[in-house]
Amino acid sequence: MFSKASPMLCGFLACLGLLLSPLGQAKSVTDANIGQERISTFFTGIIEGQQSVSLRSMQAGRVISLSLLNGSTVNKGDIIAEIYSPEWADNWHQAQANYREKKANLIHAQKEWQRANSLHQQGLLAQTDVDNLEASYLATKAGLAVAQAQVNSSNNRYQERLIRAPFSGLVSHLHVRQSDYLNTGQSVLVLDEVKRQKARFELPERFAISLSLGQQVTLTIPALGLHQQVLITELARPKKGASRLFEVTVALSQAQHKFIGLQAQLRINSAEVLYRVKQSSLQYDLAGEGYVYDDVKQTKIGVIVEAIKGDYLLLRAISAQVDLASCCANTIMAESTTAWVLNDIDKSRGLH
Predict the structure, then answer these.
(1) What is the C-alpha to C-alpha distance for residues 313 and 309, in angstroms, rounded to an integer?
(2) pLDDT of residue 339
(3) Does 171 have pLDDT greater than 50?
């Protein structure tokens, strides 16, 4: 299996090339055994739920109830944790007490108004006094409506002390324990959907540009030795100022509870044609730059070594305008469609 040539190895090969051939004498690439190859590259990602959310505390408080652990499963609507906040409790009790007071005031105002109406009908009370008591009753009634709204608001806020599961899933990361103190907005846990799963990968643009939404690719789960065909559901461009890597998301065709959190590998078959040559065909100049010699045009062709396997190198021309096959058409091997697999990918630098 090919592996990426390291700078140290390339330096060693350069020295070896100088030792094996006279300085300044370029070996013809047509003298070498050359063949076209394409490589397959594996990119590593992590399997997670199609829905993967971080559930957070809406207010600061202490965890007074937490019955789950990492790996626990929950159903939609289940209470996951309860947070106690003195502020929440005080506001709730105050709103309840204020409502009871307003309700009592309304009952009293209503009775006074009704009594005034009765006295007015008997000619014992002026209409002005009745009107004043009616206005007082209506104001008290409006105050009760405000108190009711405050109760509703405090009830809603008080319910925020309960963290519920928005969907059925698996607790993949539990960030707190019972009795821990939480700040506002602090994450309590990460919940992953189990029935539908995805995996995300970061690819350099030279690989990402060959992909499209809806394309079928091969995903491997190394820990379980499983393979499945998956579809690309998202293809995000690099963000400004961040890593210049594309984020590729695939939807698993088969999902299992045990897949969550496992490493997945995405196999990408390179559309780029590389060339396989014997190591003895590669030469290095005094600056340490690799090249092969085109004896037809009597020129050096700058190349980049992508991988090494046994006595062979897998390389490509530095210039996209150069076709290495044009200088070695008579010696290209029959196995030109063979795909060599590169297992390890360094996301920040490309191939190892």
Answers:
(1) 6
(2) 42
(3) yes
Q: What is the spatial distance between Cα 324 and Cα 304, in angstroms, rounded to a whole number? A: 12
Both tokens of 270, joined, read: 């390179």
Provide the 3-class DSSP secondary structure of residue 54: strand
Of 336 and 261, the structure prediction assigns the larger pLDDT to: 261
Give the span between the Cα atoms of 64 and 41, in whole angstroms.
49
Pairing of strands 169-174, 52-56: unpaired
Q: Which residues contact 327 (CB under 8 A, 6 or more apart)?
A: 29, 30, 294, 295, 296, 297, 301
Yes or no: say if 295 and 28 are a contact pair by the CB < 8 Å rule: yes
Q: What are phi and psi of 245, to 5 degrees?
A: -110, 145
Tell me how many degrees the CA angle 318-322-327 measures, rounded to the nearest 5. 120
What is the distance, to the nearest Å, from the Cα of residue 95 to the centroid of all Cα atoms in its chain?
42
Query: Which two structure tokens, joined as six digits, stand for 12?
Result: 């060693």
Q: What is the pTM of this model?
A: 0.58
Average pLDDT, the chain: 78
Q: CB-based contacts of 57: which residues, under 8 Å, 6+ apart? A: 83, 163, 182, 183, 184, 185, 186, 188
